[in-house]
Amino acid sequence: MLQGVSPIPIQAIRTRALSLWQRLMNYGRRNQLPFSEGNAVRPRFRGAQILDSVRTLIDGARATIHFEMYAWADDATGRDFLDRMLAARARGVQIKGVVDHLGSWDAVRMLETSGLDIRFYHPIGWNLPWRLWNRRNHRKLLIVDGAKALVGSANWADEYNDEIPPKYYRDMGLEVQGPVVGHLEADFRKSWMRTGGAGPVPRKVLVVPETGPDWIREVPIQLVSSLNGGGRVLRRHLRLILGQLRDRVVLANAYFIPGPRVLRAMLRAVERGVKMDLIAPGDSDHRFVQAASRATFDRLLRAGVRIWERRERVFHAKVAVLDDDLVMLGSANLDSVSFRHNLELSLMLRSRILAVALQEALDEDRAKSRLLTTLEWEALPAFHRVIQRFAYLFWRWL
Question: In this structure, which topology does domain 19-397 adopt according to CATH?
Answer without folding.
Answer: Endonuclease; Chain A (3.30.870)
